Amino acid sequence: MPRYLMILNYSGGVDETPGGMAGWTADELQGHANYYEALNKALTESGELVHLEALTPPNQAFVVTSDGADKTVTDGPFQEFKEWVAGYMIIDAETEERGLEIAGLYSAAPGAGGRPVQQPIQVRRMYHGTDGSAVEDTIAFGEASIE
To answer: Collapsing DSSP states into helix, strand and coil, what is residue 34?
Structure first.
């Protein structure tokens, strides 16, 4: 079965609430959390939700580079707030269409006034599915390619 990584960032979608979620009422925050809880429960029970995590903000992150012998650790990265990765889900989906449908469900979480936030969800297929099958497409990187 194909496996997909769904990445959420802090982009507010269509929500123009000043301060983002900080401007939401307690009821709006609770409604948002309840929606995610119910969706995650349903996807877990169906066997489609493999794993999910919320991430700490980039000011608690590090960037590590190494030549194999020594490593350099720096603070960051320090992207714009809307580019911060907030969390991710790993989904097993029978088809690409189902994977995109699930992403749509996450995007439709309620926000201010109960309106769907329409938060952009990046969907990336993993190279190997749960059955060991590989992605059939070739992805080119300049002159080299991975098959």
So the answer is: helix
